[in-house]
Amino acid sequence: MQQQQLRQQLLAKRAAISAPDRAAEAAAVSEHLLALPELQKTKRIGSYISVKAELPTPQLNQRLISMGHQLSVPVLHPINTGHLLFLQVHPKTLWVPNKYHIPEPALQVADITPLAHLDILLVPLVGFDHQGNRLGMGGGFYDRTLAAWHRGAYPHLQVIGLALTCQQTPKLPVNPWDIPLNKVITAAKVWDFLR
Ligand SMILES: Nc1nc2c(c(=O)[nH]1)N(C=O)[C@@H](CNc1ccc(C(=O)N[C@@H](CCC(=O)O)C(=O)O)cc1)CN2
Ligand SMILES: Nc1ncnc2c1ncn2[C@@H]1O[C@H](COP(=O)(O)OP(=O)(O)OP(=O)(O)O)[C@@H](O)[C@H]1O
């Protein structure tokens, strides 16, 4: 199947999940994540602000902050088009919608967290397969932003996808620029992809 067709099919499946089911899956995913050994010490964590039918992150993000983790979220890079910057979230953060209507922190240089400083990056996805391949919204933002990581630039960084169960698919078509994930967490389990 064509990648775009597959994306539409997976987006439709995701949109068909009821709000209570979505919330229940998010709660289960949060429990799995927070139980990981690497989360037992405070870390610098990159997350995302969920929109529409994505696995919801508001409660998870709030819990990560209240546990003392330092939280950053993506901003569309103002200069390096197609890349993401991560900005730390704090009580005084001003939120502005980006061109996709996703809230992001107003750009403040002091809040920039270089990718190299993050320990864990939680990424949204449209689909994933059993080899850790990821299908996103089609902007290539995470692929571009993580290209240096994939070449070994910051080996301590773990990239973890958060997903609804219906987002798994047996095999995704893989493009040369696609960046595979270390783990994907669904309500039922933590998928570990050895690299
Ligand atoms: N919550 C969240 N944040 C994220 C991403 C994401 O997938 N989810 N991204 C992952 O890369 C980046 C933004 N990339 C995106 C690329 C395309 C579309 C998009 O096409 N969205 C709508 C149209 C939105 C609108 O204009 O209302 C669409 O479904 O067609 C959205 C985000 C960074 N932040
Ligand atoms: N490292 C890169 N350098 C240049 N272009 C890239 C790179 N990675 C991806 N792209 C471009 O981005 C476009 C979208 O890629 P793709 O469909 O794989 O995005 P995605 O992973 O689904 O999206 P996202 O990461 O934003 O959720 C492709 O046309 C591809 O050419």
Automatic annotation (TrEMBL):
Signal peptide: none annotated. It is an enzyme of class 6 (ligase). The keyword Nucleotide-binding applies. Substrate binds at I49, E54. It comes from the Bacteria. InterPro entries: FTHF_cligase (IPR002698), FTHF_cligase-like_sf (IPR024185), NagB/RpiA_transferase-like (IPR037171). ATP binds at R134, L135, G136, M137, G138, G139, G140, F141, Y142. Its cofactor is Mg(2+). GO terms for molecular function: 5-formyltetrahydrofolate cyclo-ligase activity; ATP binding; metal ion binding. One of its GO terms (biological process) is folic acid-containing compound biosynthetic process. It catalyses: (6S)-5-formyl-5,6,7,8-tetrahydrofolate + ATP = (6R)-5,10-methenyltetrahydrofolate + ADP + phosphate. The keyword ATP-binding applies. Its EC number is 6.3.3.2. Keywords: ATP-binding, Ligase, Magnesium, Metal-binding, Nucleotide-binding. PANTHER family: 5-FORMYLTETRAHYDROFOLATE CYCLO-LIGASE (PTHR23407:SF1), ATPASE INHIBITOR/5-FORMYLTETRAHYDROFOLATE CYCLO-LIGASE (PTHR23407). Belongs to the 5-formyltetrahydrofolate cyclo-ligase family. This is 5-formyltetrahydrofolate cyclo-ligase. It comes from Pseudidiomarina maritima.
